[in-house]
Backbone:
């Protein structure tokens, strides 16, 4: 069946979202959630193996049960397990290693002396390399680098910086 009217497709999509929205409350903490600007929420269970993709206009979630498309301009937030994702988790108290963005690049602290610090471009090419000195702190200066996105990596800690 081919639906020619965009209005009809939107109605069917809305109906599909409504049907998928009636998940039992016991599943409330087990998936990916989309909250729309109109206040409605839609959940996708991890047990249904949600796959997230996107295109120029829409955010798409495909599960073993269904596929749902959300126009970007209708999404208020996306979160997991009923906890709003802030984008950055707290620092593990057992880990004193820290990287933070500065106006000229990044500051590293808490790394063992001699730790190799690499700066990569988006192609994965190493652009610069430093060793952490005995004090465990290092300032990574990107002021001479052209505009772009750079990856700073030391041990298993990674920081992505966009230089404008």
Residues:
């Amino acid at each position: 069946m081919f639906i020619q009217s965009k209005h009809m497709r939107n109605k069917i999509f809305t109906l599909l979202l409504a049907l998928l929205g009636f998940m039992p409350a016991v599943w409330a903490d087990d998936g990916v959630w989309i909250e729309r600007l109109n206040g409605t929420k839609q959940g996708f269970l991890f047990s249904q193996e949600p796959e997230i993709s996107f295109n120029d206009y829409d955010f798409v979630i495909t599960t073993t049960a269904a596929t749902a498309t959300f126009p970007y301009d209708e999404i208020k937030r996306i979160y997991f397990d009923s906890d709003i994702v802030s984008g950055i988790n707290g620092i593990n108290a057992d880990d004193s290693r820290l990287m933070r963005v500065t106006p000229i690049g990044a500051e590293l602290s808490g790394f063992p002396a001699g730790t190799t610090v690499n700066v990569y471009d988006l192609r994965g090419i190493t652009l610069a390399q430093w060793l952490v000195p005995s004090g465990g702190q290092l300032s990574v200066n990107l002021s001479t680098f052209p505009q772009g996105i750079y990856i700073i990596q030391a041990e298993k800690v990674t920081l992505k910086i966009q230089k404008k």
Notes: The chain has one helix and 14 strands. The longest helix spans residues 6-20. The longest strand covers residues 148-154. The CA atoms of residues 79 and 94 lie 27 Å apart.
